[in-house]
Amino acid sequence: PPQRNTPIYEIVQGVIRIGTYSPIGEEVCYDILKTGDFFGNLQYLNGQFAEFAKTLTAVKLRVYDLAYFRYVTTHIPE
To answer: 14, 24, 28, 30: which sits with the fewest CB atoms below 10 Å from its CB?
Structure first.
């Protein structure tokens, strides 16, 4: 935060920590993601949520355009 990145990321290799900030500005970790997981601003929460992603290891990502990702997950879920 406060960047408004809209792509969806797939972890091809590595580990990422996802978290947010407490009201007093401390980092709060709520998930550890690994190879095969997806993350990013899905824009499903109408901008009412902010999170960060920090690498824990060297990471390789695949980046998906939000419109493409939304189309594939709703029209070709398999």
So the answer is: 24
6 in Cβ contact with 38 (< 8 Å): no
Cα dist from 64 to 38, 39, 48, whole Å: 10, 10, 22
Quickly count: other Cβ atoms within 10 Å of residue 20's Cβ: 14
Global pTM value = 0.75
Which 8-state DSSP code applies to residue 46?
Answer: T
pLDDT of residue 47: 55
Distance separating alpha carbons of residues 16 and 3, to the nearest angstrom:
18
